[in-house]
């Protein structure tokens, strides 16, 4: 049996207004809450017991996922009264684990989409007889991440959190947010206080002589910390760029959920998702976007790489390009929102209120 801890306590402040009413891991991505993809992939890799470490809007998780039986796993929940950080959350959730001190515990963040071979990571951890194994990926610009250099055998040499100077960028390998712990190592994390596994636990283990093993796998990887990342991840799931057993339909250019209405003459492409009860009116063009449940895209509107919140409305001929419309917001006709524009939940934008000049 493989057990896992799933960290889902973050507030997702960089994603607002998407996360005003919904915690980041529950934002619908390719037709279902993002966590559904993670749980389904973990189950497919042989994980049988998952402890979900929750905090922000903790009450929304269990009503959706229940005991996990629909996914083929046993799912339990731990609620943090105050945020405990990644390390503190792991220690807090570990009280529901059942394995012995040498058992392997998978730990993964609830905001990472990856094509990682989960079973392969666990097997590599066991083969290396490591105390902790980390999934690493290579990125072109590692400045926003934690750097993890390794030797030729995969042994971790150091940790550098978000390097600030060129001299600190000693590798393009970053911490990808998925780990395997020896169960007894988790018990060494201080209990009852906030602990950063990246800044405190891992460097402390390395200094103490523990064996930390890095597994670098060049696979799909996306940190869903910003709206544009969630939109891209959803489109990639719909198109089958990264596999997930939880996608509720065939892979292709669009996914239209039951109860949605797409008028004749409307065009959907690029991995667009249309949620249950949503309407896409005649002449609308929607590309690579998320249209959540009960939202309306008006006639002849043009929507690209955008997210339209639940119950929101986009007026006729309005153009959205890399925009986010909050839940229940109303964007009037003949507006043009581009380049990361965000409309707050419940806000109302009159007709023709915002237009971009075509003059250069």
Structure characterization notes:
The chain is α/β, with parallel strands linked by helices and 360 residues long. Helices cover 18% and strands 29% of the residues. The chain contains 7 helices and 30 strands. The strands form 7 sheets. It has a 7-stranded mixed β-sheet. Strands 14-17-20-23-26-29 form a 6-stranded parallel β-sheet, covered by helices on one side. Helix 3 packs across helix 6. The termini are far apart.
Q: Main traits of this protein?
A:
single chain; 360 residues; alpha/beta; seven-stranded mixed sheet; six-stranded parallel sheet; 7 helices
Q: Helix amount, in percent?
A: 10-25%
The class by helix and strand makeup works out as: alpha/beta
Q: What is the total tally of β strands?
A: 30
**What can be said about the biggest beta sheet?**
7 strands, mixed
From the N-terminal CA to the C-terminal CA, the straight-line distance is 62 Å
Number of helices: 7
Specify Rg, calculated over alpha carbons. Answer: 22 Å
Proportion of residues in β-strands: 25-35%
Strand order of the largest sheet: 5-4-1-6-11-8-12
Shape: elongated
Output mean pLDDT: 91
Uncertain segments are: none
């Amino acid at each position: 049996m493989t057990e896992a801890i799933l960290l889902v306590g973050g507030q997702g402040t960089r994603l607002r207004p998407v996360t005003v009413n919904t915690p980041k891991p529950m934002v619908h991505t390719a037709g279902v809450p993002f966590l559904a993809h993670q749980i389904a992939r973990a189950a497919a890799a042989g994980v049988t017991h998952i402890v979900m470490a929750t905090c922000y809007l903790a009450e929304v998780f269990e009503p959706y996922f229940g005991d996990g039986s629909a996914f083929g796993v046993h799912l339990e929940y731990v609620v943090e009264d105050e945020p405990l950080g990644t390390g503190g959350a792991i220690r807090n959730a570990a009280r529901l684990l059942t394995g012995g001190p040498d058992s392997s515990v998978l730990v993964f963040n609830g905001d990472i989409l990856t094509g990682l071979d989960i079973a392969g990571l666990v097997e590599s951890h066991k083969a290396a007889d490591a105390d902790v194994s980390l999934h690493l990926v290579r990125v072109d610009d590692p400045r926003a991440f934690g750097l993890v250099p390794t030797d030729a055998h995969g042994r971790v040499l150091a940790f550098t959190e978000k390097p600030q100077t060129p001299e600190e960028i000693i590798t393009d390998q970053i911490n990808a947010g998925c780990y395997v712990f020896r169960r007894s190592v988790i018990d060494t994390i201080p209990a009852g206080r906030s602990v950063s596994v990246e800044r405190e636990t891992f460097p402390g283990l390395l200094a103490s002589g523990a064996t930390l093993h890095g597994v670098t796998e060049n696979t799909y990887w996306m940190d869903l910390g910003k709206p544009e990342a969630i939109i891209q991840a959803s489109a990639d799931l719909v198109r089958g760029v990264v596999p997930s057993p939880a996608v509720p339909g065939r892979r292709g250019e669009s996914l239209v959920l039951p109860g949605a209405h797409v008028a004749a003459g409307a065009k959907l492409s690029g991995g667009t998702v249309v949620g249950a009860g949503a309407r896409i009116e005649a002449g609308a063009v929607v590309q690579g976007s998320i249209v959540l449940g009960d939202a309306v895209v008006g006639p002849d509107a043009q929507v690209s790489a955008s997210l339209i919140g639940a119950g929101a409305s986009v007026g006729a001929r309005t153009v959205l390009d890399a925009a986010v419309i909050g839940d229940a917001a109303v964007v009037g006709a003949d507006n043009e929102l581009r380049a990361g524009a965000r409309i707050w939940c419940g806000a109302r934008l009159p007709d023709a209120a915002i237009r971009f000049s075509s003059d250069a």
